[in-house]
Amino acid sequence: MSTGMGRQLLDEIRSGAQERLQERIDDEVSRIQIMDITRAAAALLDANVKEETIERLLCKYWDLRPSEAHRFIRDGEEERKI
Question: What is the 3-state secondary structure (H, E, C) of the chain?
Fold first, then answer.
C-alpha cells in the first residue's frame, strides 16, 4: 500500500469517527433540551400558570409547534408526580 493510500484510509477512518462522535453529542444535547423543556413546563404548572399561557411561552422561547408544546405540558404534569 502506498503512503498516499494509507493516509487517505486513515483520513476516512478519522472522518467517520468524528461524525459518530458528533452524532452522540447532538443526541445528548437533544436529550438534555427535552428534559429542560419538560422541567420548565412542570415549574410553570406548579406556579399555577394557565396551560394556554404555558403553551404560548413554550412556542415562543423554544420555537415549538403547539402540538409539541402540548406534549411537553403533558410530560410536565407527569414530572410533577415524581
Answer: CCHHHHHHHHHHHHHHHHHHHHHHHHHHHHHHHHHHHHHHHHHHHHCCCCHHHHHHHHHHHHCCCHHHHHHHHHHHHHHHHC
pLDDT tens readout for residues 51-70: 999 999 999 999 999 999 99
Compute CA 56 distance to the chain's CA centroid, rounded to the nearest angstrom.
Answer: 19
* Burial letters 1-22, b for 16+ CB under 10 A, else e: eeeeeeeeeeeeeeeeeeeeee
pLDDT single digits (tens) 14-53: 878 888 888 999 899 999 999 999 999 999 999 999 999 9
Written as one letter, the residue type at 61 is Y
